[in-house]
Amino acid sequence: MDSELRPLAPGVYAYLQPPGGWCVSNAGLLTGAGSAALIDTTATESRARRLYDTAVATAGRSPGIVVNTHHHGDHTFGNFVFAGEATVIAHEAARTEMADKGTGLRRVWPDVGWGEISVALPDLTFTERLSLHIGDLHAELRYVGPAHTSNDVVVWLPEHGVLFAGDVLMAGATPFVLMGSLSGSLQAVAALRRLPGLHTVVCGHGPVCGPEVLDVTEGYLTWLAAVAADGVRRGWNPLEAARRADLGEFATLTEPERLVANLHRAYAEERGAPRGIHLPSAPAFDEMVAYNGGRPLTCRA
Ligand SMILES: [Zn+2]
Q1: Mind listing the pLDDT tens digit for each residue in 261-297?
Q2: Which has the closest alpha carbon to 193: 217, 167, 171?
Q3: Which is it for strands 27-32 and 12-16: parallel, antiparallel or unpaired?
Q4: How many angstroms separate the alpha carbon of residue 32 from the centre of ligand 1?
Q5: Distance 71 CA to ligand 1 centre (A)
Q6: Using CA atoms, how far apart are residues 141 and 132, in angstroms rounded to an integer?
Q7: What is the domain partition of the chain in residue ranges?
Q8: Is 80 exceeded by the pLDDT of residue 50?
Q9: pLDDT reading at 62 higher than 90
């Protein structure tokens, strides 16, 4: 269980958990005179407690603010470790999803050592934008969903050109839009492109990268839309379309099985479904396993 705290700018840190993948997520830490803010809280109790110790050792205090980039458990299950001392902030719809889903994600990977996690819901929610001031640091929380989920928030530090992207962007990994929107993801990527001076991106999973992750993500999503349009036209179901698709340049991205789940979303939108409408996720997860030749999805959390 490796982790690394990497300084990106004065008071700005990426908390990286290699190698990424399902449920092994990154976090961020912002420190300034008299305060500290954490971005996401990892998936398991032991990972969250390690993150807590790292944050306190670095900031000299426990974070008074926790931002959740979206509701997924691998970014929020650790909230309870921080919640007694922190105000937890998220998008309004993230709070609803967290209350609704609880710790259900554990059932997908029952063998993971989740620990004694309990759901700690956000204390403060917003819908579009919020500004954080951590000492001299200025961070903008911006809603860019529905994209990866209905409730994606990115954290942008305009003075430093640093973006914490949550799972809207995933370095070296296959995008995942089953629970959000394909067209919304493309719109989010376009919006992030317009951030002036963007040069460093901390994705929800994977290594620190630069704006090139926008190109890869947009390329994959555009290709995905074409695969979906073709599959719908030919009458193939998502699993069949996925099996027939040539991943091409995207074969190097990890978690290629997400193609099947992404096609469930892309098919719905191809047929006119509104962005972010609920789709059942269990059939898509079953089909990702089928796409993998019956092997369970790898989770190293
Ligand atoms: Zn996620």
Answers
A1: 999 999 999 999 999 999 999 999 999 999 999 998 9
A2: 217
A3: antiparallel
A4: 28
A5: 7
A6: 8
A7: 4-210, 220-291
A8: yes
A9: yes
